[in-house]
Amino acid sequence: MQELGKQQKMVIGMVGLPARGKTYISRKICRYLNWMGFKSKVFNIGNYRRQICGTDCNSNFFDPGNKDASKARDECALLALNDMINYLRNEGDVSLYDGTNTTKQRRKLIMETLQQKFSEVQVFWVESICNDEDVILRNIQLTKLNNPDYIGKSSEEATQDFQQRIEQYNKVYEPIDMDENISFIKIIDIGNDIMIYNIQGFLQSKLVSYLMNLHIYPRPIYLSRHGESQYNVLHKVGGDSDLTQTGLMYAKQLGKYFVQELEGNRNIKMFTSTMQRALHTSNEVCELLGVEYYSLKALDEINPGICDGLTYQQIADKFPQDYEERKMNKLTYRYPRGESYLDVISRVEQIIFEIERSRLPVIVIAHQAILRCLYAYFHEHEVPEIPKLNIPLHQVIKLVPAAYYCKETRIKIDPMTGNWEIQDEATIKKVKSFLDL
Amino acid sequence: MQELGKQQKMVIGMVGLPARGKTYISRKICRYLNWMGFKSKVFNIGNYRRQICGTDCNSNFFDPGNKDASKARDECALLALNDMINYLRNEGDVSLYDGTNTTKQRRKLIMETLQQKFSEVQVFWVESICNDEDVILRNIQLTKLNNPDYIGKSSEEATQDFQQRIEQYNKVYEPIDMDENISFIKIIDIGNDIMIYNIQGFLQSKLVSYLMNLHIYPRPIYLSRHGESQYNVLHKVGGDSDLTQTGLMYAKQLGKYFVQELEGNRNIKMFTSTMQRALHTSNEVCELLGVEYYSLKALDEINPGICDGLTYQQIADKFPQDYEERKMNKLTYRYPRGESYLDVISRVEQIIFEIERSRLPVIVIAHQAILRCLYAYFHEHEVPEIPKLNIPLHQVIKLVPAAYYCKETRIKIDPMTGNWEIQDEATIKKVKSFLDL
Fold first, then answer.
1. DSSP character string of A56-114
2. Cβ count within 10 A of residue B311
3. Which residues, at least 6 apart from B67, have a Cβ–Cβ distance to it below 8 Å?
4. What does the record give as the active site (chains A, B) (predicted)?
5. What CA–CA distance (Å, rounded) separates A237 from A310?
């Protein structure tokens, strides 16, 4: 049996001047691919350069006329390329080669090296072009000034040096040309304007759709499970039971929370499942907010197949082998006649596209397994961890994705009193640790 | 409750010189959208011109310098535009405006008219560019020579006149420019090279993915249900029963059929579901062919929810209201805790993308409701008809999509003797009737 998109190893090569969001894009792609079950890794040439040549490199180091530095930089690029090839030869499905790769000659060299090393490999290039000086400047200030290359430098000094570094690259920059006869996507000003050439197969096509829907406007994403259901109380899986009295009270309190949180903004997108407990929770919220929701089967809870309506104890008694198998690997275990977490990921993928595309605040009211999958997408969790993520009842998870991290706040809502307890304000992940600098 | 993509009416305007596949593309889009549940219709300006100005128009009629003819052509374009607006004001979700629309001024006029008539309307332009003279010539010969404009003309005469007509348009042709500030996709040489600008929302994004995967290489698509299952014999719905002895024999005969049909070509794509009866049928076929298959949950049979394992008689007895509701509207009826045909369409959509993208022969071994949905996509069936389509057991449906029709052959295979009976060779639909010329 084959798996879609897994016939060939793939290399995704980034192209573009510094501060064009290449690292942002390659990290997003990498996260998306891993989440979909393709083992993927970013190889950032800059990190190799910093490890090998140190961080004390000012813009002169990037002058194409500086022969020694050029040679050192070429060596770093080759080292990254080699590691990438080894990764693909071993466990990896997709390698992302995150560097400027600004000349035709460089891209040709990479293509030739890869073709020598693999009998069959797909290479897909992603060029990020941005001509908006404000965006570039913001990008420099947001992501480059914390860069170890600029420790101890003033912000002005660092910005100026980085702009000079960009100029050095610009001297030799050749945008991808159709004559190079490579598969590529050019992204101009992240998502607005896109050019695609010679796209092949499942994975490249997925990536194009994904990249088409990206934008860099910040907006919050709110995740909440439905209120407590009758099956929750009985510890039964599956079913389509309605809310308990407590669950209904949560729904009302949740509505009040959103009224205050959104300050009367009705310009939002709200998604829910087709199940009673989610619909009834959403109805209460929508009534207070004066908005409508999308009810989607893709957000229905994981289907427990033949275990529907049983407690975990009953499953252990009735289907001991299934119970054990699931305990061993909750991610890939598929309930007989039901679904696995991987099945769920593949059907909620369309919701990820909807959320990514939205420039408005998004509310998702759904179910434990569903929200585990969505949450993991935003947080760069290892896929095998997904079935263990903590998504309790009666809690809102507010996510605000930013360039290299996702800000998270958890709001625990007491269904009885309506009191909120803000839980995890401190889980903001720092740019630096995320960038592995 | 809202439905994804249905907030705004949409107009899709075609742009391009004659014989660039605009009609092909707009018909494909229209079929795809209708299949997805968006009421869509193509308004072909050429058909208005033929109705109003007659068919005796040689290339001089298309000379931009010919004032009278220009005026008449403008009037036809306006009439089509008006009908299109009325369609959107009434039942329509999406109108496709199929004409050359080759000048900026024309596109501006259309934009302004639409903005006057609707407070909110999305306009999305699709420009088809083809510079391959062979493809253009083939296109002329395949689709234009049967055109009523050329009745009674020799093939050479008609081709030459049509080429002159293209030249007339070329005099004033202005490809879409970013300065026009409109949302567009440019398709160069159908699918190879694509430019996207200012894409917004669910439906436009879907369309781009769809158009990205189109190609014009002919290849057969084979659909077959699994062999007879135990539940088939018991007249029960749902379940995950295995093949009967007869079903297993069909599987073996099906393999033999494909060995002969494909003449040893192992370069094919084969998709099946995750259900026992489909997997076991596919295993038999693959063993003989020496190929592998993709097993996808998206191809699992429609989920009958609480009716799983019942006969229709039992459903009528146990759930009389559901039984009646389903009989009234089999398309939208969703089995409690199960699926409707519309739910199935939305999950098999990804398979349509896989099939469209494939340049290799495709085999799908699946289930009745699933194959009804796939078959309807290829055959321009009205969506409400889908649940009634005839997809019997032990029959292969071979489809070969061509420019404006889909060639169909049905091969009935006797599970016992392995004899084939070729059934519907004559269902080829003629270009002419499909084009409503």
1. ---GGGG-TT-HHHHHHHHHHHHHHHHHHHHHHHTT-SEEEEES---SHHHHHHHHHHH
2. 14
3. none
4. 226, 301
5. 6
User: How far, in Å, are A122, A435, B64 from residue A12 at the CA level?
Assistant: 8, 19, 48
Q: Name which of A209, A296, A346, A349 to mutate to probe chain B: the one with the most chain B Cβ atoms within 10 A of its Cβ.
A: A209
In chain A, residues with a C-beta closer than 8 Å to the C-beta of B213 are 205
Q: Which two tokens stand for residue B225?
A: 């249900």
Contact B183, B123 (CB under 8 A): yes
Q: Looking at beta carbons, which residues of chain A come within 8 Å of B194?
A: 195-197, 199
Residues B221-277 pLDDT 10s: 999 999 999 999 999 999 999 999 999 999 999 999 999 999 989 999 999 999 999
Beta strands in A109-233 (DSSP E): 121-129, 183-188, 193-197, 221-225
Minimum-distance CB partner of A192 among B2, B198, B343:
B198
pLDDT digit string (tens) for A95-143? 999 999 999 999 999 999 999 999 889 999 999 999 888 889 988 887 7
What CATH number corresponds to the domain at position A253?
Answer: 3.40.50.1240
Question: CATH number, domain at B127?
Answer: 3.40.50.300
Q: What is the DSSP letter of B430?
A: P
- Residue A1 domain flag: no
Quote the ipTM score. 0.90
In this structure, the answer to whether residues A114 and A228 fall within a common structural domain is: no
What is the structure's pLDDT at B434?
40
CB contact B197 to A (< 8 Å) = yes
CA distance A162 to A19: 9
Residues B289 and B342 in one domain: yes
Q: Which residue of B has its CA nearest to A336?
A: B240
CA-based nearest residue to B342, from A29, A5, A356, A295 = A295
The closest alpha carbon to B359, from B256, B431, B265, belongs to: B265
Rounded-to-integer distance, Cα B175 and Cα B130, Å: 12
How far apart CA B106 and CA B127 sit, in angstroms, is 14
Residue B312: phi and psi, rounded to 5, are -60, -35
Closest by Cα among B101, B352, B98 to B209:
B352
Q: Is A226 among the residues known to form the active site?
A: yes
- Same domain for A232 and A95: no
A212 in contact with B, Cβ within 8 Å: yes
